[in-house]
Amino acid sequence: MMLRARVPLPIITRNIRRGIKCRRCHAFGWQTIGGSIGKCSSCGQVESVQMVARDYFSKLDLLYPDDIYKRRDIMDHLNLSISEYTLQKVIRSNFKRLGHHKRIYFFSP
Q1: Which terminus in the chain has less CB density within 10 A, N or C?
Q2: Which residues pair with 36 in a beta bridge?
Q3: 57-107: pLDDT as tens digits
């Protein structure tokens, strides 16, 4: 079996909405409660922010493989109000630093 190189898909980016969708009801009303736990405002599904961020960026990685992110890009994509501590946990568990740059990362779960 031959492996093919991953290539970005020809998708119109203005149709993609940033933010976390609920896994159960697929609504965009997902908010953080407490430090690292989030809850859907529509159906009440409760999940970890780290797990939801990993799922979001793994799906985004299928659309845009090998894309690089700054800290601000990660916050904009998540579209959540999370603490600095929770953001650091998400970055440490899901991203790797790009070379010697301090705040530039690529997704690598």
Answers
A1: N
A2: none
A3: 998 888 888 889 999 999 999 888 888 898 999 999 999 998 887 788 989
CA 73 vs CA 19, 39, 58, 91, 108: distances in Å:
12, 22, 15, 12, 16
- 3-state helix, strand, coil split of the chain in percent (to 5) is 35, 20, 45
Counting runs of H as helices and runs of E as strands, what totals does the chain give? 3, 6
Total-model pTM: 0.79
Name the residue type at position 76.
Answer: D
Domain extents for the chain?
Answer: 20-107
